[in-house]
Amino acid sequence: MRIAVLGAGSLGTIVGAYLADGGMDVQLIDTYEAHVEALNTSGANVIGTTEFHSNVKAITPENKSGTYDLVLLLTKQLYNETILRELLPFLHDDSVVCSLQNGIPEQSVASVVGADRVIAGSVEFGATFIEPGVSRLTTEYTQFKKYAFQIGELNGETTKRIQRIKSALDLVGGTHISDNLVGTKWSKLLINNAFSGLSAALNGEYGDVLDSETGIVSAVHIADETIKVGHANHVTFAKMNGFDIASLELTSDSDIPDRVQTLRAVMEPSRLLKASMLQDLEKKRKTEVQYINGVVPKMAQGKEIETPFNDLVVTLVEEAEQLQNVPTFSKNIQPFELLIRSASPSMIN
């Protein structure tokens, strides 16, 4: 099996290192030339919760050649259209593209490479890019080896090809086949919408959202909008660590205090996280907000579902992109207060 890791950043470096060490024919593909050079000269170095080194082959995108049996897609969705069209000449009829990106990119990926080539994937471990050739594994190593990926066919079937891909990815870490991978990605989208979105829009860690009454009530509304839009699009939300995430849906304003309590308990272990979108704003880069919070209003079209909280996140993050600055919490929390007053007047005193 000839494999391409397309987007060899923090996650892709680790994935490529373990695949290469396992004897797979794998190329790490990335635009960062210094990183590619370091990978080829010094190998891939994994630090953090483990220490690991592997000799790897790395190239920049213009040096692709031949065809790939499996492409692990780890780039940002911002660049999908260009990246995937450039990939087409390097795919054969039975090539598989496994989308391991944030959000729910499968339909857009399929529109370029063909639905028969696409399987869905979800990365279940964390990593941080340190310097060219070096990535830090931030998930406990034992957990990483037990639960690194979920993968699945879009129709939920367990096929021979999904089993072959599982065998390859097991060289990296524990890989699990899901019959509802789309539901898993929507559940992760909900958390990203509520907390990564607000982290970026407000300029704070997840804990700042949890500790702000306006922030956590806004997160509840964002979750509710995501669930309602998902259900309208025939999505069955998957449980996350045993938690029924669809239970966060609101049936009336009287549900909000209970949902606030539940969401605070579920997200407390993640209070120190800072959204990658906020890190992008700090670096004056474009974010993936249209592929995270922006998914909900797009998928709500024609469904008669309003999405004002997700809309506001998109507006504030894109405004920060245009101004090339980071938001101010005290300033950007105010429009959320106004939204809550109009949606749930009793929730803000």
**Oligomeric organization of the protein chains:** single chain
**Helical content band:** 40-55%
Shape: globular
Q: Using the CA coordinates, give the radius of gyration.
A: 20 Å
Which structural class should the secondary elements be placed in? alpha/beta
Largest sheet: 8 strands, mixed
Mean pLDDT: 95
Could you spell the SSE succession in H and E letters? EHEHEEEEHEHEEEHEHEHHHHHHHH
How large a portion of the residues is in β-strands, by DSSP E? Answer: 15-25%
Looking across the biggest beta sheet, what order are the strands in? 5-2-1-6-7-8-11-12
Tally of alpha and pi helices:
14
- Measured distance between first and last alpha carbons: 61 Å
Low-confidence stretches: none
Quantity of strands, as a count: 12
Note down, in words, how this protein is organized:
With 349 residues, the chain is of the alpha/beta class. It has helices at 10-21, 33-42, 80-87, 106-113, 141-146, 160-169, 181-202, 206-211, 213-232, 256-267, 276-282, 295-300, 308-323, 329-343; strands at 2-6, 25-29, 44-48, 52-54, 57-59, 68-73, 91-99, 118-123, 127-131, 134-137, 149-153, 175-177. The protein has an 8-stranded mixed β-sheet with strand order 5-2-1-6-7-8-11-12, with helices on both faces. A 4-stranded mixed β-sheet has the order 4-3-10-9. Helix 4 links the parallel strand 7 and strand 8 (118-123). It is globular, with a radius of gyration of 20 Å.
SSE blueprint and pairings:
Layout: E1 2-6, H1 10-21, E2 25-29, H2 33-42, E3 44-48, E4 52-54, E5 57-59, E6 68-73, H3 80-87, E7 91-99, H4 106-113, E8 118-123, E9 127-131, E10 134-137, H5 141-146, E11 149-153, H6 160-169, E12 175-177, H7 181-202, H8 206-211, H9 213-232, H10 256-267, H11 276-282, H12 295-300, H13 308-323, H14 329-343
Parallel strand pairs: 1-2, 1-6, 2-5, 3-10, 6-7, 7-8, 11-12
Antiparallel strand pairs: 3-4, 8-11, 9-10
